[in-house]
């Protein structure tokens, strides 16, 4: 007699995986990036558009950030940093560095974590290099790690919606956002950033 239980179990698993894919696809802070088959110029064009959208969302979430971005010597935007974990986690994303309002290079970010967490999520990360020295150290490094090469002061937004002035005066300032807005209490320590060859 034909056993239908394995067939039902496989069908249920396929439905669950498909549903999870739809849920995680909706967890991005920006529009999905181009497929791996897209040309380098298409990927960069998509990344530039996503960076613009990310900055627009930042200005909406924290209007005071627009002045901070304008004063920065360099602005590094990672529109879509994907993370997934089950006890051991990893995250990866690509972004663009802008200096003087112009694209000055493309970078990747990676980080790992260990903890009892499961699932996947997407976040956007913006780093502001507030001094020439901080920007030059970043651009001249062969691989730059938060905590080892520089400390990133993740911005705190007060109850009045204003940026903490002490944080804003640090050499490297960071913002982290997800679909719910700015994330508080986030540590970027151990995040590694490397320049993309092409």
Automatic annotation (TrEMBL):
Domain of life assignment: Bacteria
Domain Ysc84 actin-binding: 111-195
UniProt cross-references to InterPro entries, sorted A to Z: Ysc84_actin-binding
Keywords: Signal
Keyword Signal set for record: yes
Signal sequence extent: 1-25
Pfam families named among the record's database cross-references: Ysc84
Protein name: Ysc84 actin-binding domain-containing protein
Taxonomy of the source species: Bacteria, Pseudomonadati, Pseudomonadota, Betaproteobacteria, Burkholderiales
